[in-house]
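Handoff note, outgoing to incoming analyst
You'll be picking up this chain. Sequence as last confirmed:
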Amino acid sequence: MAEKTAATRPAARLALEDGTVFAGRAFGRVGADAAGEVCFNTAHSGYQEIVSDPSYAGQIVTLTYPLIGNYGSTEGDLESLHPHAEALVVRELAHAASNYRSTRALEDWLDAHGVIGIEGIDTRRLTGRLRAHGALRGVVSADAALSDAELVQRAKACPDMEGRDMVSTVAPAEPIDWSQGLGEWAVPGQPSSDGKTYRVVGIDCGAKHHIWRHLVSQGFELTAVPPSTPAEAILERRPDGDFVSNGPGDPAAVPDVAETLRTLMGKTPVFGICLGHQLLSRALGAKTFKLKFGHHGANHPVQNLGTEKVEIT
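Most recent structure output, in case you need it:
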């Protein structure tokens, strides 16, 4: 089989609703057009975790780091069962996967799940445009029969993320008892709670699997339930605490979850991450609003040479 390179991939375009069009080359499922809100992520690694994070449902993800795919892909690094990002935008796609854990190239993994990517565009210019003008809807396509103007019109017709319930598109249908921990990634010697087993009910609005794995590794007995689960059904499980997860879309578009949290408060400890944190705020009477552009990145461990402790920044 001939090696895939930028020169052998079909031409593709990313069109934005403001009329800007970027030209590049397609990879992944090259015949699958994609539409969504274009965002950027500044992480240097973790591209597979980003694309499989349900929080990115409905979005086209631009990675600002210039070389992507150099360590391939592996099923053990997924944050869900499949990709949720609508498309992936990169400056340069690596032509070889140099990692003993890799089972296949990033582009082959995307192709298997029907996700298109585009490489070879100026991601710095794109990111600068999103920072200057705010989040923009876009379309990625390798269809040469469509004009630039037609692609821009498709971008303008894409549903806005504000006011859109995306949680229902990624939520589980049934409760799931979680038993998988961090495995080989667990921190040696890290204490698990206080030796007692606590029962936690997780309201799954699109949770990353690593959140569940961390809770299990800390010794919690965990059940993840759909976000439509009423507070009474959650309390019947007699939880020691309740958790509401991350997820996609506008927290204002899922008022039923906020109402569930409002009922749980005062009866059990309740904690949340990302969208879950925003829903807790709404349950307490606060209002949320959409930022001009969301900033997505990653935490990095840095050793403090003065204390020899590893801190997260």
